[in-house]
Amino acid sequence: MTALDFLDDELHELERLGRLREPRVVAGRQGTKVRIDGRDVVSFSSNDYLGLASDGVLREAAVAEIDRSGVGAGASRLIVGNREAHVELEAVLAQHFRCESALLFNSGYAANTGLLPVLAGEQDSIFSDRLNHASLIDGCRLSRARVEVFEHLDYEQLDEQLARSSARRKVVVTESVFSMDGDRAGLAALREITQRRDAILVVDEAHAVGVLGPCGGGLLEEVGVDADVVVGTLGKAVGAAGACVAGSRALTSLLWNRARSLVFSTGIPPMVASAAKAGIALIRGPDGASRRESLARNIALFSSRQRSPICPVHVGDDREVMRWTSVLLESGLFVQGIRPPTVPPGTSRLRIALSSSHEPAEIARLQVALDMLTVPRGTR
């Protein structure tokens, strides 16, 4: 017996529940056509919604930055890791999100877990949608604030919670497009409620950046609403990596001093920042508009119900959803099954992610394969 014997016990329990996860190996350039575990497949599981992750413009920007700056940032950004590429990208992101200032983080998880403890503490309350991403949930926990969860998109309940609250500060957090269901937050309603209740509105645009809005600014841009704080990721539609928090200059200045996930992390590689800057430029230009149009056509082709590239097919049982993933993989299609704790128990699903790069024939193949798996009527 050793002190680490519990590890095997935990793994056996995950296997018993049908929730043991093992990573697959992907080869080749990121795109809709990749090689997974030695098999050539069409992928429907990537968040590369606009097909920018392997775009030549982003690759050239990254290579040029390697020649200018090398590879790694070398240290945290408060020491010697604050490179010109970071500062240039932040200026572009502030403009993109229509904010005074923007600050880079190494990931969306780092952004949310760094941000929320700065906005709220023990005397404050955070109000969080039940289906918010794990990074928001963990950011709430790290803040040590009182956390009040409201049912998914139930803004009447949220309004009642805010009305009862006597917290020093009240912070409302939501995704704009929810990562596992693809549905949208009611941002106009949230803005009205938070302004009336004197609360801070934080909107995570991770799955809307590049995809929604006339210039790809996200759901806030599309519906013409502002938020106090915007979180955006650069590793999905933008095609690079990292994330940002955008808002007032006072906010980003305070984050420089108190956001632990920023202060105590080596800066993202400058080449990644330059690639992201190139991605934002494409998104805001004619090429980005064309890619959004292609993506919208593909979404409509697959489903008349979805308004985002995230199209869940609900299965329910943990083991059954992974069987579906295996059957699809054997037919040359990859759709990752999603199980708890990523989604609530009993709601395991195939999370289909569409891209502007998917061809209509590939979408048709997927539809035929799903029909052979006897998808229940009304799930897509």
Brief sketch in words of this structure:
With 380 residues, the chain is of the alpha/beta class. It has 14 helices and 14 strands.
Structure report:
Helix 3 runs parallel beside helix 11, helix 4 (108-119) runs parallel beside helix 5 (134-143) and helix 11 packs across helix 12 (286-302). It is globular and about 55 Å long. It has 380 residues and is α/β, with parallel strands linked by helices. The protein starts with 5 loop residues before the first helix and ends in an 8-residue tail after the last helix. The chain has helices spanning 6-17, 56-69, 84-96, 108-119, 134-143, 155-164, 187-196, 219-223, 249-258, 260-263, 270-284, 286-302, 318-330, 360-372; strands at residues 26-27, 33-36, 39-43, 101-105, 125-129, 146-150, 170-175, 200-204, 229-233, 243-247, 310-316, 333-334, 337-338, 348-353. The protein has two domains: 25-49 and 309-372, Aspartate Aminotransferase, domain 1 (Alpha-Beta Complex), CATH 3.90.1150.10; 56-284, Aspartate Aminotransferase, domain 2 (3-Layer(aba) Sandwich). Strand 1 and strand 2 (33-36) form a beta hairpin.
**Model regions low in confidence, pLDDT < 50 over at least 5 residues:** none
The radius of gyration over CA amounts to 21 Å
Quaternary state of the chains:
single chain
Counted beta strands: 14
Side by side, the strands of the main sheet go 4-10-9-8-7-5-6
Basic shape: globular
Strand content: 15-25%
Number of domains: 2
Major beta-sheet overview? 7 strands, mixed
Number of helices: 14
- What percent of the residues sit in helical stretches (DSSP H or I)? 40-55%
Find the structural class using helix and strand composition. Answer: alpha/beta
| CATH homologous superfamily designation of the largest domain | Type I PLP-dependent aspartate aminotransferase-like (Major domain)
CATH fold name of the largest domain: Aspartate Aminotransferase, domain 2
CATH architecture heading of the largest domain: 3-Layer(aba) Sandwich
CATH class of the largest domain: Alpha Beta
Alpha carbon gap, first and last residue: 50 Å
Give the SSE order as H and E letters.
HEEEHHEHEHEHEHEHEEHHHHEHEEEH
Give the overall pLDDT as a whole number: 96
